[in-house]
Amino acid sequence: MKDKFTLRAEREGYKARSVYKLKEINNRFKLIEKGDRVLDLGAWPGSWTQYCLEKASEVVSVDKKKLNFGKPIVCDVFKDEIFDKVKGKFDVIVSDMAPMTSGIKELDEGGSFRLVMRALDIAEKLLKKGGNFLVKMFESEETEEVLGRVKKEFRSVKIYRPKATKKRSSEIYILGKEKI
Ligand SMILES: C[S@@+](CC[C@H](N)C(=O)[O-])C[C@H]1O[C@@H](n2cnc3c(N)ncnc32)[C@H](O)[C@@H]1O
């Protein structure tokens, strides 16, 4: 059965229900400002890109799968070719990347942790000083390590679990504001 966020996304023309997670986070923490240049990592099918396009001046969308709108870049983020394909620096980097889940908790948590660390590596190179960062993570023993790194690299750190997150999901969103 479709839940209320899925039905709302269909009604409002968004590609996925996950848009309401980003909307809630942005309304609360003012991550994306008018005129920003945004990099959306793990962008397919594109609801975060749709929302960012309503706010930002430019949105570059990276995924292994190709978006059919905006400025899509088809790339596996673990490949260094991402730094040739994505040009310039960004005011905001968001990552909703998730591994292909296996159902084996440790495996899925490990996959999520590696994606989070890679998103942070990308932010180190491509996020402007003072820029904002948001990343999804499956909560695990490694969460403390991630928080430690975000605390070193950003002026403020928040953990947030939006209302649209499914009850059984272990996902959290980590927000780093103002890159040092
Ligand atoms: C939950 S979906 C993102 C949904 C998107 N935020 C939206 O609102 O439409 C996660 C995405 O991460 C992408 N992804 C996972 N691993 C990746 C990798 N190594 N490189 C690039 N994209 C990856 C998947 O292809 C998938 O499309």
What does this structure look like?
Helices cover 37% and strands 27% of the residues. The chain is an alpha/beta fold and 180 residues long. It has one domain: Vaccinia Virus protein VP39 (Rossmann fold). A seven-stranded mixed beta sheet has the order 3-2-1-4-5-7-6, with helices on both faces. α5 (105-126) runs parallel beside α6 (143-153). The longest helix has 22 residues, at 105-126. It is globular. The model has no long low-confidence stretch (mean pLDDT 96). Residues 15-16, 18-19, 42-48, 63-65, 76-78, 96-98, 115 line the site of S-adenosylmethionine. S-adenosylmethionine binds at residues 15-16, 18-19, 42-48, 63-65, 76-78, 96-98, 115.
Distance between the termini: 45 Å
Coarse structural class: alpha/beta
By oligomeric state, this entry counts as single chain
Helix content: 25-40%
On the 0 to 100 scale, the average pLDDT is 96
What would you call the shape? globular
CATH topology tier name: Rossmann fold
Give the tags.
alpha/beta; 7 strands; Rossmann fold; binds S-adenosylmethionine; 6 helices; 37% helix; 180 residues; 7-stranded mixed sheet; globular
Write the layout of secondary structure elements.
Elements: H1 4-12, H2 19-29, E1 37-41, H3 47-55, E2 58-63, E3 71-74, H4 82-85, E4 90-95, H5 105-126, E5 127-138, H6 143-153, E6 154-160, E7 171-179
Parallel strand pairs: 1-2, 1-4, 2-3, 4-5
Antiparallel strand pairs: 5-7, 6-7
Bound molecules: S-adenosylmethionine.
